[in-house]
Structures are given as structure tokens and as C-alpha cells.
């Protein structure tokens, strides 16, 4: 039976990583992303697309992060999808780029879906990528 859900269940894997909000640590998140996508048997080009998307999302968040902040990254692994949720505390009045910006065009082109939330204290970007159907 194939389950098609993005909401984690008891049988799904959740991986949490926290790294300093510094560009030097993004390689850790890219590597974790690639490893988890490979575990789901994503194609090599899908893995690379997701790595680029995670890198772009983190770059957006680093631009509005508070000093000495940490990026919290939550990976949810389901049977056919990987959801990556990256959160960072933000500076007062910080805003993410508009959904019409080039950065968002990149995220939506490289993933199944991308969304963002910000509440004035923190911002989160959520990326969902489904494995391509096998023929």
C-alpha cells in the first residue's frame, strides 16, 4: 500500500537539526537533505534540486535572522515525500522576499510546493518535495 501524505504519522521519520544561523553551516543541512532524499530513492536530479532549494530557503532566512540565532531544520520523511521546515528567530520588522521574487520562483520551480510564515518573532519556510512517479 502506498501512502501519500505530507503530515507525519507515527510510522514516519522526523529528523531535527539545529545549526548556527551562519552560511558556513548550510553544508550540514544540504548534506542531510541529500541523504534523506536518497533514502526515499529520489532521482539524482531531484536530490540536487532539493539541495538547492534548501540552500535558497536558508539564505532567505539568514538575511532576516537575529544575531547569534540558530536555524532549526525539521525533516519529515513519508513514503513518497520529504518535507523540510526551516525556522529562525527574526529581527524586528523583518520580512521575507515577496512570493513574486526571483528567490520564490526558484523555490517553487525546484520543489512540489513552498510556503512561508512569519509572526514578527520567527520565520519559517516549508518545502515539500514528492518523489517522481516511477514508470
From TrEMBL:
Keywords linked to the UniProt accession: Kinase, Transferase
UniProt xrefs under Pfam families: HATPase_c_2
Domain spans labelled Histidine kinase/HSP90-like ATPase: 20-87
GO molecular function: kinase activity
Biological source species: Micromonospora pisi
Protein name (Swiss-Prot/TrEMBL): Serine/threonine-protein kinase RsbW
Amino acid at each position: 500500500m502506498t501512502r501519500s501524505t505530507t503530515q507525519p504519522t507515527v510510522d514516519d521519520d522526523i529528523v531535527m537539526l539545529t545549526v548556527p544561523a551562519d552560511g558556513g553551516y548550510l553544508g550540514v543541512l544540504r548534506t542531510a537533505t541529500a541523504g534523506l532524499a536518497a533514502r526515499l530513492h529520489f532521482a539524482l536530479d531531484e536530490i540536487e534540486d532539493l539541495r538547492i532549494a534548501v540552500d535558497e530557503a536558508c539564505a532567505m532566512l539568514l538575511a532576516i535572522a537575529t544575531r547569534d540565532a540558530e536555524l532549526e531544520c525539521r525533516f519529515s520523511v513519508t513514503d513518497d515525500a520529504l518535507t523540510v521546515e526551516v525556522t529562525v528567530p527574526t529581527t524586528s520588522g523583518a520580512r521575507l522576499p515577496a512570493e513574486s521574487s526571483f528567490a520564490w520562483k526558484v523555490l517553487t520551480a525546484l520543489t512540489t510546493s513552498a510556503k512561508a510564515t512569519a509572526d514578527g518573532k520567527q520565520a519559517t519556510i516549508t518545502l515539500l518535495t514528492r518523489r517522481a512517479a516511477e514508470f
